[in-house]
Amino acid sequence: MKHTSKPSLDVEVGPLRLKNPLLTASGTFGYGAEYAGFMDLNCLGALIVKGLSLKPRPGNPPPRIMETAGGMLNAIGLENVGVKAFIAEKLPFLQDFSVPVIANIFGETVEEYQEIAALLERAEGICALELNISCPNVKKGGVAFGADPALAAEVTKRVKSVTSLPLIVKLTPNVTDITLIAESVAAAGADVLSLINTITGMSVDVKRRIPHLANITGGLSGPAIKPIALRMVWQVVNRVEIPVIGCGGIATAEDALEFLIVGARAVQVGTANFITPTAIPDILKGLEAFLADQKLAAIDEIIGTLNC
Amino acid sequence: MAGAEPVVIIGLITMNQEVAGGQFLLSCKLPVSFPDPEPGQFVMVKITAGMLPLLRRPFSIHDFSRGDDHARLEILYRVVGGGTKLLASLPPGSTLGVLGPLGNGFTIIPERKNIVIIAGGMGIAPLSFLIRRYASLIRQEEMSRARLSRRIIAYIGTAAAECLVGLDRIADCCSEVKISTEDGSCGFQGNVLELFCRDRAFYNPADAAIYTCGPTGMMKGLATLINGIGFFCQASLEERMACGHGACLGCAVAAGKDGTGLYKRVCKDGPVFSLQDLAWQT
């Protein structure tokens, strides 16, 4: 049978139905408006905004970033306007678009996570929450939750109890065995997992003999981390029943396809947006071309089809 | 002031020459769709098609002009690392990814008699474009016999005479060009702030506007020098950047009085700032 209609990019990610598998990685897309001049936000599968805390955070002193081979380190320090200012000042702009908006949230205590979730519950225009339990740059809260299966499960369960929104939990790779955290969080009620967040790294100025980052260490992202991210996604997909969103070094359609083939139901694109603001629309075209070339009717057909 | 939305386009290098030790002037042909930039704005340049280096590099716009079917952009840069070293090796005919124009430009002030420019080292790069814009404005004012006769006074400081670049572009635009070199090989021996300091008392807030760009220490020293006097003074900053368009929050600079702990983005809230709005004590 000849497929004459355009291939379908629709994907189901647990309770979420997205028109394509491409999401923005939190922290790389601001609150959306920053990219509206470069691309049509409505072409995104979903827009995950910068991580929101209960109170506004100023972030870390500079220098906050440093390029590495095939990647970059960041120690932004989770600078954000705070959930209340987000709802009042940033969300209205996004409501003019049809793109699903996902709020990434984090707290220093479980109670903070719950408070933020409760505030967003009442806000219009959010289709899911993504729990950041994995940021490697914050001294309190972030690292501790994501590195301990019990703590990760607790924050998942407690947030799930106060929200009706689908819950995505974003995992940190800075652990010995990510599948243990994944299992624990899935059992605690997460609807979806996303992984990976950045990998803790470091860079030194040899002339001045000081770290390149004021924070000393930072999170590594970009093409350099893709093999690690891909391996972890593959491991987690084979351990849990809930859907997984893959993230880490995706810059091209081929990169995205690797993650889909190992079993991710969708992917996040992050650092690539810095270099090419139209990275996601470009990848979208690449996926369409791949499906046409392979004579596939839907992207869904390749998900989890790794032969091994 | 920011104008049109920035664009992502490919340019063609028409010239890439070393003009002083380690300092290069690059001229690039762009499609007509590139918007008119304001002096003070910058571009993010993709030096290679591949992943090395990964990130674009920020360069202030040194000059800009239009032909019938193209635009021409110039940048003046110094080789400081892997990215700029690679850029310096690109011959005419090479393509370059250009994202811009980005950021806020300098504010052009009407009715101020003395336009004072203080440039340290590579700071001349964005200030040259500003000088030429002011010169063009002043010529128009003179032709329409404006009441006020305005002058541009440029204070240019470098390490040594052989490091001086960009003077030919601004010589005809300025009433005076005053030079300082650290080693005394040209003009005043010392730094550009010491040179300006000698003239400081000739200027007052009602009749002068000051624009500066250069090493952080120099701009910090200027902030101290003119603190509390009430001058209009703008500074163009630089900082390591990843995106260059306000999304990543990587290029933070401390702003706000007395270390209130707030940051602004050099790429989006700047690169031009009111000198007094920055927290120089941190």
Keywords for this structure?
heterodimer; A: 308 residues; alpha/beta; TIM Barrel; eight-stranded parallel sheet; four-stranded antiparallel sheet; 16 strands; B: alpha/beta; seven-stranded antiparallel sheet; seven-stranded mixed sheet; 5 helices
What is this entry, summarized?
The complex is a heterodimer of chains A (308) and B (282). Chain A is α/β, with parallel strands linked by helices and 308 residues long. Chain A contains 9 helices and 16 strands.
Question: Number of DSSP helices of chain A?
Answer: 9
Class based on secondary structure composition and strand pairing of chain B: alpha/beta
Low-confidence stretches of chain B: none
Order of strands in the sheet with the most strands of chain B? 4-3-7-1-2-6-5
- Structural class call of chain A reads alpha/beta
The poorly predicted ranges of chain A are: 136-142
**Which quaternary structure do these chains form?**
heterodimer
C-alpha end-to-end distance of chain A: 29 Å
The average pLDDT score of chain B comes to 94
Name the overall outline of chain A: globular
| Secondary structure tally: strands of chain B | 16
Residues in helix, % of chain A: 25-40%
Average pLDDT number of chain A: 95
- Strand order, largest beta sheet of chain A: 3-16-15-10-9-8-7-4
**Rg of chain B (C-alpha, Å):** 18 Å
Give the % helix of chain B: 10-25%
Which sequence of SSEs, written as H and E, runs from N to C of chain A? EEEEEEHEHEHHEHEEEEEHEHEHH
Strand-residue proportion of chain A: 15-25%
| Fraction of residues in β-strands of chain B | 25-35%
Structure write-up:
The complex is a heterodimer of chains A (308) and B (282). The longest helix of chain A is centred in the C-terminal third of the chain and has 15 residues, at 279-293. Chain A is an alpha/beta fold and 308 residues long. Chain A is built from 9 helices and 16 strands. With 282 residues, chain B is an alpha/beta fold. Chain B has 5 helices and 16 strands. Chain B has helices at 82-88, 124-143, 167-170, 192-199, 216-225, and strands at 7-20, 23-30, 42-46, 57-60, 63-66, 71-78, 95-102, 114-120, 151-158, 176-181, 188-189, 208-213, 232-236, 252-255, 262-265, 272-274. In chain B, strand 8, helix 2 and strand 9 (151-158) form a beta-alpha-beta unit. Chain B starts with 6 loop residues before the first strand and ends in an 8-residue tail after the last strand. The model of chain B has no long low-confidence stretch (mean pLDDT 94). Chains A and B meet through strand 5, strand 6 and helix 8 of A and strand 14 of B.
